[in-house]
Specification:
CATH class of the largest domain: Alpha Beta
Radius of gyration: 34 Å
CATH topology of the largest domain: Bactericidal permeability-increasing protein, domain 1
CATH architecture of the largest domain: Super Roll
Number of domains: 2
Structural class: alpha+beta
Helix content: 10-25%
Bound molecules: 2-acetamido-2-deoxy-beta-D-glucopyranose
Shape: elongated
Oligomer: single chain
């Protein structure tokens, strides 16, 4: 236990200066939007609130103390002015305040003084409540965002209480004469209640997972890399953003480079990814051997004029159907090196160094090796948002086919390259128009688009398949 704790502490200090691979900026516009949603929610829910019973004792000079209980207290009416929330640079947090809040409450009262029990109902109006609270953001040892109260002040303008039933006249007398005391008691309770809310929020933050499984194989670590940074108009969070193998929790051996996400105050929020995030996924898939597939004729639609058999390859490799007439073929397609993404302004580049080993499937199911090709390609892609959809286009910038070895004698590789002109896909859907929200459409040509779920990994895998099928 202790050694692992020490290791994680050392690790935490060592990684303190780590570059974030994902950055999230919350702008003032987003903060104000959040505030309005929150305030609307509070206003809608306040009327449905029934407060827990409030019990206490009041000592009345020589009479000793009278126990009281306020029960079934509910909000009858609430004048909820617009709260204000702003970034507070000096403490790296927020300052929230509400001023001029008024609430009318109604409920029942009970008192007990020795054996004498009494009760009735009451109305309570609290006027001009001002509350100001500042809270700072931080980071805990596990990379969770944390929040804690810095200071709080509460001021209650005035109260009005009306008691009915029982010996309410006596209570009324007490309330009228000790108004200042009651106001003070209320003020004394507001800030602890506010702090309790902040603590509850902090508990939620601590309980939140900062690592999530993305698929059965891959997880993503979204813990903070450094303290949240707050200036007068925005909050910036730097997240680790690396993919790791779920089984071993091993991430990539390379580190994220620095990148700056430009501030765009016109947006509520900006999220930026560095190429490290994509490349860490690539690394994990590659190192686990997942960029390797055995492809056979079953992936090609029966109606296709081209089939994965030795006769179909005749036009490109004339000797193949002569040496191995009418045999089905299979291809082992794999990445030779980790596919690498690089992000440039407005452009995503992807380099794929792949190989294909071709086999003839003998009638007794033995695989006879035919040839091995290296297939090196470069893609560039663009993404943009229009009509609320994230869209993208991908172009193949360069394709180099090299014959590495051949068991069937030499052949013209350039001829074979034509076979790749029309990508054949079974697992991808070809459509003419852009599809639903949260899909990425990759335009293969003027009329064909490939639409995929919005997941970087899927784009990634599909690019891979797109190329090889
Ligand atoms: C609360 O803390 C903030 C930041 O330190 C400070 O500016 C403000 O004056 C404090 N307010 C009170 C009521 O102490
Ligand atoms: C956090 O992760 C653990 C283990 O992966 C899981 O059991 C738990 O349900 C997750 N909690 C939340 C709130 O997602
Ligand atoms: C083709 O591959 C599929 C799955 O990859 C497999 O189920 C099938 O048996 C293979 N067919 C041949 C003829 O090898
Ligand atoms: C090979 O593919 C061609 C189409 O290219 C098809 O006409 C032929 O039937 C296939 N042969 C075998 C053995 O599958
Ligand atoms: C399968 O067939 C091939 C070609 O006919 C032959 O060379 C090979 O020895 C056979 N393998 C087995 C295990 O029968
Ligand atoms: C394509 O890649 C090869 C090998 O990397 C290179 O020699 C060639 O110049 C590239 N062609 C283009 C058009 O970029």
């Amino acid at each position: 236990m202790l050694p692992s704790l020490l290791i994680s502490l050392i690790f935490a200090t060592l990684t303190g200066g780590e570059n974030p691979a994902i950055q999230v900026i919350l702008n003032n516009k987003g903060l104000q939007y959040g505030k309005n949603v929150g305030a609307g929610w509070i206003q809608d829910n306040l009327k449905r609130v029934t407060l827990p019973d409030i019990s206490g004792k009041i000592s009345i000079g020589f009479l000793g103390s009278v126990g009281y209980t306020l029960t079934g207290v509910s909000v009858k009416q609430c004048d909820f002015p617009e709260p204000s929330v702003q970034f507070q640079e000096d403490i790296s947090g927020f300052k929230s305040s509400i001023s001029g809040l008024s609430v009318a409450l109604t409920g029942g009262w009970r008192t007990h003084y020795g054996l004498i029990h009494d009760g009735g109902s009451f109305d309570l109006a609290v006027f001009d409540v001002d509350v100001t609270s500042t809270a700072k953001l931080g980071e805990d040892a596990d990379g969770h965002l944390s929040i804690s109260s810095v200071n709080c002040s509460a001021d209650v303008g005035d109260i009005k209480m009306r008691f009915r039933g029982g010996a309410s006249a006596i209570i009324q007398f007490f309330v009228d004469n000790f108004r200042g005391y009651i106001v003070g008691e209320m003020e004394r309770h507001i800030c602890p209640a506010v702090n309790q809310y902040i603590d509850a929020f902090e508990h939620h933050l601590q309980a939140m997972n900062v690592s999530f499984p993305v698929d059965p194989f891959l997880g993503i670590d979204l813990s903070l890399t450094n303290l949240p940074s707050v200036d007068a108009s925005s909050l910036t969070l730097g997240l680790k953003g690396d993919f790791y193998q779920i089984k071993s929790h091993a991430g990539p051996p390379f580190k994220a480079g620095p990148f700056t996400l430009p501030k765009q105050p016109g947006f509520m929020m900006s999220v930026g990814f560095s190429e490290f995030t994509l490349n860490s996924a690539s690394y994990v898939y590659f190192s686990a051997g997942l960029f390797s597939r055995l492809v056979n004729d079953s992936v090609i639609p029966p109606s296709s004029p081209f089939h994965l058999n030795t006769s179909s390859f005749g036009p490109y490799i004339p000797q193949l159907p002569k040496l191995f007439p009418d045999l089905l073929m299979s291809l082992q397609v794999y990445a030779r090196e980790m596919p690498v993404f690089s992000l440039q302004p407005g452009l995503i580049r992807l380099g794929l160094l792949g190989s294909i080993k071709a086999f003839a499937i003998q009638p007794n199911a033995t695989l006879t090796p035919l040839f091995k090709l290296n297939v090196d390609s470069k893609f560039s892609g663009k993404t943009w948002i229009s009509d609320g959809l994230l869209k993208g286009s991908v172009e193949m910038d360069n394709l180099t086919l090299t014959l590495v070895s051949s068991e069937v004698g030499p052949f013209q590789v350039s001829k074979l390259a034509h076979g790749f002109d029309i990508p054949r896909m079974k697992h991808a859907q070809l459509v003419n128009t852009v599809l639903k929200v949260e899909e990425v459409c990759i335009h293969l040509s003027e009329s064909l688009s490939l639409c995929l779920p919005l997941s970087v990994l899927h784009i990634y895998l599909m690019l891979f398949c797109f190329f090889f099928f």
